[in-house]
Structure formats: C-alpha cells, structure tokens
Amino acid sequence: MRSLLSRLGIEKRTNALPSSSRGSEMTLSSKLEELLRQAIELEKQVHYRLPVRLGYDELAAILDDALAQAQSGKGHDRHASGEPWIEQTIFQIPRSLEEVGAGFNAGQYAKKMHEAMRLPHAKRREEFLGAIVYAASLVRLYDRLYVDQTR
C-alpha cells in the first residue's frame, strides 16, 4: 500500500497533498481525480509474467520479443490505433465474418510462416514473431469459443 501511495505522490500524512502541489491552483478534488486516474492506469499494468524456470529463458525472450513487436513494433505500427489487442483487426475480422472465424488467424499464421522462409534472417525473424502473435490469437479465440460453449 505504501509503495502505491508513494507512486501516486501521496504523502504519509492524512489529507495531505504532495509537497509539489501545495500552494498550486490544483484543488483537492482535481488532485483526487488525477490520482484516481493514475491508480486505474497502474492497475492496468498488471504483470502476467510467470517466473522463468532454468532452461526456459530463451523461450521467454522470444515470447517477449513477439509481445514487444505486437504492442510497440511492426504490429502496433501497422494494425493498432490505440485500441487493445483484442479490439484490433486480428480479432475484428474473425468476429465480423462468422463463416471465416478463426480460419482467418490460422491462414495469417500459415502465410507468415510461408513468407518468412523467403526472407533474409532479420526480416524472417520479424515474420516468425508475427506468426507467434497470430498463434496466440488462435489460442484466445478457441479459449473464448470453449468458454462460450460451456455457458
């Protein structure tokens, strides 16, 4: 609790504004609203990483690279407009075209693997990482399908 409060800039004393805010024009209400917004953002930054066991560090590094590409690299640049992964084209097409469904993602995975084999190593690696993201989307789609069918 203390670390969360200090990360949000709240001092230990009750009802105290951070020293940098004292005397400023920011009201208590607006400061509380800002702190709540920051708390919500911190809550979104959940760490999903499992501890990496000895011998699995290379797999973890590759999965991290695929995640980095999707959220801030080539995947983000081409496919995201600020929306979360599950709201991007990778999921919009399977949802909007029921007859295609997860087949779109499976086809994109296969296409990336096929294209990768014709590219030089650096570009090949990017395609492989993209294929990992499509494989993850298949897991997500089938997880949702299973969950929906068991309700």
Which key phrases capture this entry?
mainly alpha, 151 residues, 2 domains, 64% helix, 0% strand
Structure description:
The structure is a single chain. By secondary structure, the protein is an all-alpha fold. It folds into 2 domains: 2-44; 57-149, no CATH class. Helix content is 64%, strand content 0%. It contains 7 helices and no strands. It has helices spanning 2-7, 28-44, 57-72, 74-79, 89-96, 103-116, 121-149. The longest helix has 29 residues, at 121-149. The model is unreliable at 11-17 (pLDDT under 50).
What fraction strand?
Answer: under 5%
**Whole-number mean pLDDT:** 78
Using the alpha-carbon principal axes, give the shape. globular
Number of H/I helices: 7
How many β-strand stretches? Answer: 0
Provide the low-confidence segments as ranges: 11-17
SSE run: HHHHHHH
Number of domains: 2
Intertermini distance: 37 Å
Instruction: Report the major sheet.
Output: none
- The helix content, as a percent range, equals 55-70%
Structural class: mainly alpha
Based on CA atoms alone, the radius of gyration comes out at: 22 Å
Sequence-ordered SSE layout with sheet pairings:
Blueprint: H1 2-7, H2 28-44, H3 57-72, H4 74-79, H5 89-96, H6 103-116, H7 121-149
Helix pairs in contact: 3-7, 6-7
Short summary of the structure?
By secondary structure, the protein is an all-alpha fold. The chain has helices at residues 2-7, 28-44, 57-72, 74-79, 89-96, 103-116, 121-149.
